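Hello K.,

You asked for the raw outputs rather than the summary table, so here they are, unedited. I folded two proteins back to back in the same session to keep the settings identical. This is the first:
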Amino acid sequence: MGAYGGAPQARGGGGLSRPKKALAQGRSSCLCCHQLVSLPAGGGPTRCPRCGARVHGRIDGSLMLTWALTITGTLLLLPANILPIMTVIYLGAGEPSTIISGVMQLYHAGLWGIALIVFVASIAVPVMKLVGLTLLLVRVQFGPPRFPLQAMKLYRVVSGIGRWSLLDLFMISILVALVDMGAIASVTAGPGSTAFATVVVVTMLAARSFDPRLIWDACDDAREELRESGATGENNNPKDGGAAGNV
């Protein structure tokens, strides 16, 4: 019996064929709870009966939307690090601070731990997320990933680390709310915080718009092309070695 209860299907070489994918049988897995859901007859989206999430066979325009959001986040990352993220005024004196200058001030003040946290959350995490998304998009669109398991691990890391970039925004919002002493001290958010918040939101949307099932689709398509090319080569080169000598 085959993997789906039917008789095994023979290939041209006498072996067993690969079982059909769930999508070919009108089914798809829910990306939230991983329940296997039957799709409508037209192949459109439906709702998961377990968690109520929207289930697609594949997310429509996943690659194009993820590319657009990734490029947008990359462009916004420059003003987020150049423009001042906040201004601290104490006794009438103060100057705007960017993310990098804030990290350097914390480092020179001996607060290495806080400086490291700010650097990782504000600079390292957004850059890692954008680079990871770019690698996934390039491998899926321009060639099948050679190591799909590693690509899936990269996707899980990218989708999991994005929330830590909100640490800076929480800190700024708390400082603005607490440090309001009139003419003595005040903290105001700068334009860099708006750009940085947009980068965080855009990268989170980019991670959600990327369909990780496309990684396996690319690998399956590459295997199918190799199988077809191998079968074509066998048909073009018959094993009748003696036929060529009897001319």
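The second followed immediately with the same parameters:
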Amino acid sequence: MSMVDGRRGWIAVTGLLVSGLSMLVFGFWAWLWPESFAAFTGFEVHTHYLHDAGVFQIGIGIALLLSLFVDDAVTVSLTAFVVASTLHTVNHGIDLHLGGDLASVYGLGAFSLVGAIALFARLVTLHRSEDHPPPRMRRRSESTPGHRQ
């Protein structure tokens, strides 16, 4: 029995909620208000790297929270990757005035596209598979995350 099954399931769910929400809060803070985030943490302001750190934290937060609702780990991972990678691509476009080049925007965008195609393919494959139904949202009355029937 794993920590998300049975009587101790609330421990894992609470951990996922607290961790996921904190990643989103600090991630959006670093991404949208890098000067404020740097002042709070005591780091020097390096706007582009704070933007990048923020979007990767957002991706981690998405993965943690999505795992509460979606049964398939590959779907959760690819979704978080596509979100983080796409925001990272946007950062490189927005921060061109700080350095870098347009080629990095296109290169990073290509990774996002590959992730999106992989996610789409995964969802189609799961939908067509009789052995593994597509990821679904759990109802409150169902078991906690990690429980397989």
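Residues 2 and 146 are 8 Å apart (CA to CA).

Happy to rerun anything if the numbers look odd on your end.

Regards,
P.
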